[in-house]
Write a structure and sequence with these properties.
0% strand, 257 residues, single chain, 11 helices
């Protein structure tokens, strides 16, 4: 029953929006605004076939590789910087400097340094996705309860055991918040990295459709990006519920008190 209720909640607004779109576009002759039914047909014709292997799967592979590397680097560096006070104070200005640089402006530089290849595209994704994970991890480590930290010190819990039993569990809610931001950034940067000097990928294909006035195909690519984002969000929520089960249980107890 709960599954049915959640499904109805999740699908109600999209159904209403599609109904409004269908009603407002049914009498429209605007070339740039496709109707729902023809768009579905165009979507199937465009993306179900050879393009899955030539454009869609390679793009998703680069996205997953970039996001995975950003999460790994962000968590490891965040744990190190957040655990050492002088290192945190030393690196804070330089981190703020690099964080302020928009990743798209690095694309020409990375093309010169790495060439036009998958490494360049993955590096673009990592360069933007690492910041929310890194900064949230630092903040999560810095905000560890002082009572818990003193208790761990008193019981002689240090080194890897301290990281495993105190630092990671305490910082995990903020790390997951950073990963959530990282996923949406990764999708944006995947498209941007494929728009420059590329010959395949979702970003490249959508730009080609736009330049050739293939408007329905262009819209179908945008819809595909949205669907990938929705799937990523559902997978993240599923993983978050399991990783932070103890945290959500604690919040429910606190709210019920």
């Amino acid at each position: 029953m709960n599954i049915l209720k959640r499904f109805l909640y999740a699908s109600a607004l999209p159904v209403v929006l599609v109904a409004i779109w269908w009603a407002t576009s049914s009498t429209s002759t605007n070339f740039f605004v496709p109707k729902p039914a023809p768009l579905v047909s165009t979507f199937v014709e465009t993306w179900v076939g050879e393009r899955i292997f030539s454009d869609v799967l390679p793009s998703i592979g680069r996205l997953l590789a970039g996001v995975a590397m950003a999460i790994l680097l962000g968590v490891l560096c965040g744990l190190l910087i957040g655990s050492v006070r002088w290192l945190r104070e030393l690196t804070e200005p330089i981190l703020e400097f690099f964080r302020a640089i928009p990743p798209p402006v690095l694309v020409p530089v990375l093309i010169l340094l790495l060439g036009v290849n998958d490494s360049m595209k993955v590096t673009v994704i990592v360069s933007g996705c690492i910041w929310p994970v890194l900064l949230n991890t630092i903040e999560g480590v810095r905000a560890i309860d002082s009572v818990l930290a003193d208790s761990a010190r008193t019981y002689g819990i240090t080194g890897p055991a301290r990281v495993r039993h105190l630092v990671l569990p305490s910082a995990l809610p903020q790390i997951m918040a950073g990963i959530r931001q990282c996923l949406s950034l990764g999708l944006i940067l995947m498209v941007i990295s494929e728009m420059f000097a590329s010959s395949s990928g979702l970003g490249f294909t959508i730009v080609q459709f736009q330049r050739s006035f293939a408007v329905p195909e262009m819209w179908s690519g945008i819809v595909l990006l949205g669907l990938i984002g929705v799937v990523m969000s559902f997978i993240f929520q599923w993983a978050e519920r399991r990783v932070l089960r103890w945290y959500h249980g604690l919040r429910e107890v606190e709210n019920a008190a």
